[in-house]
Fold:
Amino acid sequence: MTVQEADDGRSETQTAIMDATYRALCRRGYADLTMQSIADEFEKSKSLIHYHYDTKEELLAAFLDYLLDKFLAQVEVADDDDPTERLDTLVEALLSGPERAGDFQVAMLELRSQTPYVEAYREAFAANDEYLAGLLAETIRDGIEAGAFCDVDPERAAETILVMIDGARTRSVVFDDDDTVANVRAAIDGYVNSHLRRTE
Amino acid sequence: MTVQEADDGRSETQTAIMDATYRALCRRGYADLTMQSIADEFEKSKSLIHYHYDTKEELLAAFLDYLLDKFLAQVEVADDDDPTERLDTLVEALLSGPERAGDFQVAMLELRSQTPYVEAYREAFAANDEYLAGLLAETIRDGIEAGAFCDVDPERAAETILVMIDGARTRSVVFDDDDTVANVRAAIDGYVNSHLRRTE
Structure:
């Protein structure tokens, strides 16, 4: 068993399949995604993909879990002690996303729009969201206890931030100019500054 | 020329085609939408649809314009003098949407996710958004002048509200329980109350 396996229960092959899925989604979007287009991005045999995942839907639900793990690995590196900085790190990481963010957000919005049709996607999105809401609420709660944030309802503030992040992602697909992304980021910072941060 | 034509430049037939498109989107979503599935919801001859719109894409871009007109007709009826009430009316109308809101939001999110592939959709979404941002900013500006709202940047506050509305719509597709919609609505009200409304 490799360190990778011990870490997140995903074998090296599975991780390579996930990376291939990421590249295929960035290249072709979701509507045109097939097991073959994922295999085209995968260095090993296509049969390995079928061995691990029976259907495209099963593979993509696993991919959503993989994204959450990647996100958590990314924000754990920062490991800020200060709740204000930690919230910044979380929001920044959620907004910026992985490399090729534009192409990838398009594919993710397509995938989200399919949640009413594919139960496995809906479950995976819902589980990710619940985890992120908990993480944000915990950070806000820490901030309130440390006196850095106002005495807001942590769960509600976390929900508000997630609503804005989902809105930012949706809008970034329709309006792909840099101005729009910067405006959306400013809107979220404005909310955090005026609603959460205790002014000195 | 009917009153309808004089009003919004849309003939009765075109309005009937738009209504048929709405029903087809609610019934089948966007991915399965064809000119035939719109014709199935249309009482007159299918050839009339082709006479007015060459392609599905052209028809759906016209449909997005039609939605904006319907929205404007809806909020104009209210015609609140008070900027606080007017903002409430706009947010409520943007959040609640038309009847069969759930099915319809699914189709709209599918359509939005196609904006990078279909320029006509991107243009129509962008034009609608610009109009709505202007309408919200104007209302907020009126509220500031009337002393009801704090001295915020009206354009930025309008953008923030639109980000939250887009987030709410995206989330309502993934989380279709009533609790989630109520939470999102509470999050937006919380922002408006704490950030915009001048407390007595």
Notes: Confidence is low (pLDDT under 50) at residues 1-6 of chain B. Residues 119-145 of chain B form the longest helix (27 residues). Chain B touches chain A at residues 29-31, 106, 109-110, 112-117, 122, 125-126, 129, 156, 159-160, 162-171, 173-176, 183-184, 186-188, 190-191, 194-195 (CB under 8 Å).
